């Protein structure tokens, strides 16, 4: 147990950052970004990676642990009696279900969309864009608020394990390395794949969420909202499982908006005409999009698609 | 731009289900204590004050 504890402690400290950088370097070396990483995209990805990790989160944790004893003097280690695995289960559900809702509402409530758009504007998948978010989106939902409070209440150990497990799953789901492919390919692994793809986010299900198409049998950007657990999409009927990967990613109406406008909208606006991030831009750029009719070829694709009834 | 009526209905329905899902792990933990007779909160020590000499 001490060995596992050490692994998780190191992962939480510097390990996850190192792993992200190593995976990102591998993706880059294998040409998985396929010359899509322009200077504007690169700057946005790097700024979104560095600022929350090294400035925002440490600041929130420091301020939280400084003021929680003043606000809730009797709360310190109040729940330290909760057994580890129960703590893990309670925090995993509370954390990930809240993030599911935060994510889903940013897609389904039109005025929230522009705060989350930055995460979807990249036309590639990978480590480089995994932490790509608008700053306002990050500060209004940061796992660090919950983790800071739980550490104070005495559930820090369970929270640490949830944070690391979740980070590994979310990282794997965004990666351009399709690690889940063998599970669909080899017959012996398929029963395991059936459970896996319903329980957690995989590259196949999460890539579908980042597709620039919807309803073509693979792309599904109006669903598959789960972060660590895909189970929420199964329960609420907001997901599809196809075991396929989209041909293209991003948003069709992307105008390569300036990195600072994507990172700090609405503080900074885009100068691009007709952009969702421009001063007089539309709230949702594809609101008038006409859903294409399903062709015979697409019907063939649909035969292999598992659609979750809502 | 307004949220579609159908979507807002589903959101309300799913939030109601979520309340149950949030409570589920806590309820299961309490049920396990009830079945096994465990009372871990009785053995917990209050937070120690760190006093420097």
Features:
heterodimer, A: 310 residues, mainly alpha, 14 helices, 56% helix, 1% strand, B: mainly alpha, 2 helices, 68% helix, disordered C terminus
What does this protein structure show overall?
The complex is a heterodimer of chains A (310) and B (53). With 310 residues, chain A is an all-alpha fold. Chain A has one domain (2-257, 295-307). Helix content of chain A is 56%, strand content 1%. Chain A has 14 helices and 2 strands, in the order ααααααααααααβααβ. A two-stranded antiparallel sheet of chain A has the order 1-2. Chain A starts with a helix and ends with a strand. Mean pLDDT of chain A is 86; it is low at 289-304. In chain B, 68% of the residues lie in helices and 0% in strands. Chain B starts with a helix and ends in a 10-residue tail after the last helix. The A-B interface holds A 76-77, 80-83, 86, 89-90, 93-94, 97, 101, 104-105, 108-111, 154, 235-236, 283-284, 287, 310 and B 1-3, 7, 10-11, 14-15, 17-18, 21-22, 24-26, 28-29, 32, 40-41, 43-44, 46-47.
